[in-house]
Write a structure and sequence with these properties.
- The protein is 54% helix and 9% strand.
- It is of the alpha/beta class.
- A 6-stranded parallel beta sheet has the order 3-2-4-1-5-6, with helices on both faces.
- β2, α2 (52-57) and β3 form a beta-alpha-beta unit.
- α1 packs across α15, α5 packs across α6 (135-145) and α13 (243-250) runs antiparallel to α14.
């Protein structure tokens, strides 16, 4: 099974990470993390990174590659991930890509959206509004001009909200109407794409369980430690689900219970956006996973599909 390239898609808490680990062990592959927040060092609990034990058994790529104070982008991800894939394949190993960041997955499979360049004046104005009004206010504005984009972008994600509003001002067109290069046949000849689906009530229960585990395993202390670092968190890291809400708690604006409920709510919203993105991906073999189905059973079904 040399040089297999398999991508596992699924919403947050769908079980794709555990499946990728078991699949990589089964076919002697290495794992490429396709996650916009696992790239940050020391952001471990809130991003549900694989354990150190798992990383001793299987080699992972695109985890812990930048400092939390640094910005990161889909373009940078594509550059580094492509280099990692070539390095792995050059050693005769297979690649299992896994993650829920739809934009990064799309970049690997179909390429990046070539939008207009940045306009410094417009960007400064929008960023100033983020500081004075908060990202949620700009998200409401985006909802009026581009509901499709607003549905995919978290109200906390200032960077993507600003970019979507910037594109609209520069082109007069919603960014969602320009992101069409993967509506037709995909450039996926080298990839076998597997998608995991669960019933929404099951997904919600799994999200709640994950959030509870994050609190039990030290998310609050992790956030306190990050805030105490000499270099401040980048806007991208700061708005990550789990961290944005817990920062509000640590800084006294939310109780712990309120922060936990916000994390659950925003994670469910993220899952909804992921489903919307992934439905547009062609060439995906979807596997409907039973509520109590074991990872061994799902792995067996995946092995049948990848040959």
């Amino acid at each position: 099974m040399n040089h297999k390239m398999i991508m596992i898609l699924g919403v947050t808490a769908s079980g794709k990470g555990r499946l990728a680990f078991e699949l990589a062990r089964q076919i002697d592959a290495e794992i490429l993390s396709v996650d916009s927040m696992k790239v940050y060092r020391r952001m471990d609990v809130g991003t549900a990174k694989p354990s150190l034990e798992a990383r001793r058994q299987v080699r992972y790529h695109m985890i812990d590659v930048v400092e939390p104070s640094e910005s990161f982008s889909a373009g940078l991800f594509l550059e580094k991930a492509s280099a990692a894939i070539e390095e792995v394949r050059g050693r005769g190993r297979s690649v299992v890509a896994v993650g829920g960041t739809a934009l990064y997955s799309k970049a690997l499979l179909y390429g990046l959206f070539e939008g207009p360049g940045s306009d410094e004046r417009t960007r400064r104005e929008l960023l100033a509004r983020v500081e004075s009004e908060g990202p949620a206010a700009l998200h409401r504005e985006l909802s009026e001009i581009d509901p499709a984009a607003a549905d995919r972008i978290s109200p906390n994600d200032a960077r993507r909200i600003v970019r979507a509003l910037e594109v609209y001002r520069l082109t007069g067109r919603p960014i969602s109407s320009l992101q069409r290069q993967f509506d037709g046949p995909g450039a996926v000849e080298n990839w076998t794409i597997i998608g995991l689906r669960r019933e929404k009530p099951v997904e919600s229960a799994r999200i709640n369980a994950r959030v509870k585990k994050m609190i039990q395993t030290g998310l609050v202390d992790e956030v306190r430690s990050l805030l105490a670092e000499e270099e401040p968190l980048s806007p991208q890291a700061r708005c990550a689900i789990g961290y944005a809400e817990m920062i509000e708690h640590v800084q006294g604006r939310l109780s712990l219970d309120e922060a936990v409920e916000q994390i659950k709510k925003n994670t469910r919203r993220l899952a909804k956006g992921q489903r919307t993105w992934f439905r547009r991906f062609p060439d995906v073999t979807w596997i409907d996973v039973g509520a109590e189905e074991s990872v061994e059973s799902v792995l067996e079904r995946v092995m049948q599909r990848i040959g």
